[in-house]
Amino acid sequence: LMCLASYGEIAEMAREIMEMSRGINLKGAALFAAVAAALWGAYIFLAALKPPIDYDTLTYHLGCASQYIARGGIRDLPGNIFSYFPQMATMNYLLCLLLQGGGCVKILQFFSGVMAVVCVYGITRQYKGRPFIGAVLLFTSPLFILSATRLGTEVYVAFLAMLLLLFVLTKYEDGFTMP
Description:
The protein is mostly helical. About 70% of the residues lie in helices and about 0% in strands.
């Protein structure tokens, strides 16, 4: 749904990348950078598909969601303090686990990262920045890569925060005032 909702933005980003690449003869450093970016994207995608191994994911994000499914609802899970505050990302993971299983959760996490990059691209384009540079800076940030390749809430929340920022900035330009 996230990709469908932002299809226009993704298509615009792809169009601009294609226009930038026309007439460019990729040699030397430019060819190396293009190949490195493609390999980097493939690495992030494959790393997002790996089985979860970190404590936070197994205990909280997927652990609580799996136990809620096994118990037939959101119930007290003695011994797991995290079950007392189910958060939005965990509830989305719960829905994914019910619909398709672990693969769906991993794809949701990966596309949350994609949508975060698209949001940065959209914000910088709307405000006359250099959208491609902004998207690349986020895409290559070590903390972003770490968060995008493991299940957690960081990339998901970053995407929603940037979407909110874009909404507020757009409304502010349209003359939105607080009551």
